[in-house]
Write the structure tokens for this entry.
Amino acid sequence: MKFRASWFLFSLVILSTTAGCNQTSTSTNNNHATASPSSSATPDAFAAVRGVFAKDCQNCHGVDGKGGPVKLDDGTRLRVPSLREGHALRHPNSEFAKQIMQGGDGMPAFKDKLNQQQVDELISFIRSEFQGGMAPPPEKSSTKQH
């Protein structure tokens, strides 16, 4: 009788373990079946503004943001500043926005082509893509201390 009870207990343990393994295996397979490769991909936060940069900025600043000498259609030659170093790193976002909207120093004004949201996204794109995600310099105080 002891042998039968032991055998029954042993069989019950094996059966429980097997059922647990099958259930785990099934749920694992179901998880893999429902996951899609695209669900783990990170969407490009700058997808829309990349098009703006390509259309309105890339001809002068270059695909890599390095700038350099540019000859315009009217024959004018410009030395376009880099968006990666020097002066561009020292501008707070408000000065970048002003330069983009109003133009100057050979750069055309984009106030009639881009809205404020596009300009803000463009600045974020430049900071991320060409300046290694650096935080912008602090905004200059508009009040003077005596």
User: Anything to note?
Assistant: The first helix runs from residue 2 to 34. The two ends are 102 Å apart (CA to CA).
